[in-house]
Amino acid sequence: MKLLLTFSKKKGREPVIAQVVKQTGVLISVERAHIDSVSGEVLIDVPDTDAREVCDLMQAKGVTVRILEHGVSLNEEECIDCGACVSVCPKEVFYMDEEYRLHLRDERCVLCGKCITACPHHALSQTL
Fold it and tell me: Which pairs from 46-53 meet CB under 8 Å and 24+ separation?
């Protein structure tokens, strides 16, 4: 399950993810991180069976947690199957089938936003 963590300036300096791994024994995969001098946002992937425990512990440590059910949404009425998103996606979320119709595997999405920017018909959006 993907969790989007938002850190305050104070919490951004603490090894919160490492603390949670140490306390729970749950392996956490960091898929994307953006941390600056004011705040931070980290997208992590944890096993579904451990998500609640990790969520609760992160929140107890002062981290805002959002559970992400989906990464990117495709508006099929707007999509013209041009493939612009396929070429820019670093995680191979998008693929074309034998009939050159666009499909996506949103579980691979790391919410980088490159596909949304590249789409000429604005058929893609983030679902936070």
Answer: 46/1, 46/3, 47/1, 48/1, 50/24, 50/26, 51/1, 51/3, 53/24, 53/26
The CATH code belonging to domain 2-68 is: 3.30.70.260
pLDDT (tens digit per residue) in 70-115: 778 899 999 999 999 999 999 999 999 999 999 998 888 888 889 9
pLDDT score at 127:
63
Q: Architecture of 72-126 per CATH?
A: 2-Layer Sandwich (3.30)
pTM of the model as a whole: 0.71
Radius of gyration of the chain (CA): 17
